[in-house]
């Protein structure tokens, strides 16, 4: 469906009070057109209707007239540069941004992420994590490993029990 038709549906959804549907349509459009700042702005407006300042700040992060409280909420939710880089969901070089402010913001986030990762990164190969992310993901990895170990031990117990029953 063409961009214009989808935006018309978004407007109709908002007029009818179907905010979740409008949000989903806009999320799809931003996913399809990640470098369109106008779509990001529209999505931020919908998140304001939800009362979600962090997500509004996420989608307004590349706009000079962004709200400082929303920006702070976004930065608090996405604390590390790799998390911010993934959250911004930009594709391609910063030069694709249509404003100087957006290009500067994108370059600053990418540079901070490169510093955090200890190697150069770009927008098309957003890193999966950072040193700062390792505390939480380390515990999650431990829980996953412990769960796998319990599952393997249970399987072995059933298998050994079956072998014993077979030869009795």
TrEMBL record:
<keyword id="KW-0812">Transmembrane</keyword>
<dbReference type="InterPro" id="IPR046491">
    <property type="entry name" value="DUF6584"/>
</dbReference>
<keyword id="KW-1133">Transmembrane helix</keyword>
<protein>
    <submittedName>
        <fullName>DUF6584 family protein</fullName>
    </submittedName>
</protein>
<feature type="transmembrane region" description="Helical">
    <location>
        <begin position="139"/>
        <end position="160"/>
    </location>
</feature>
<keyword id="KW-0472">Membrane</keyword>
<dbReference type="Pfam" id="PF20225">
    <property type="entry name" value="DUF6584"/>
</dbReference>
């Amino acid at each position: 469906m063409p961009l214009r038709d989808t935006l018309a549906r978004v407007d109709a959804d908002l007029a009818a009070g179907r905010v979740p549907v409008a949000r989903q349509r806009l999320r799809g459009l931003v996913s399809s057109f990640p470098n369109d700042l106008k779509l990001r702005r529209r999505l931020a407006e919908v998140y304001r209707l939800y009362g979600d300042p962090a997500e509004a700040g996420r989608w307004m992060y590349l706009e000079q007239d962004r709200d400082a409280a929303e920006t702070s909420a976004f930065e608090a939710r996405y604390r590390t540069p790799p998390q911010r880089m993934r959250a911004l969901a930009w594709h391609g070089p910063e030069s694709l941004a249509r404003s100087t402010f957006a290009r500067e913001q994108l370059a600053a986030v990418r540079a901070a992420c490169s510093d955090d990762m200890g190697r150069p990164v770009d927008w098309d190969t957003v890193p999966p994590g950072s040193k700062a992310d390792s505390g939480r993901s380390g515990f999650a990895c431990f829980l996953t490993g412990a769960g796998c170990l319990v599952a393997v031990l249970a399987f072995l117990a059933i298998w050994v029990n079956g072998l014993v029953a077979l030869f009795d």
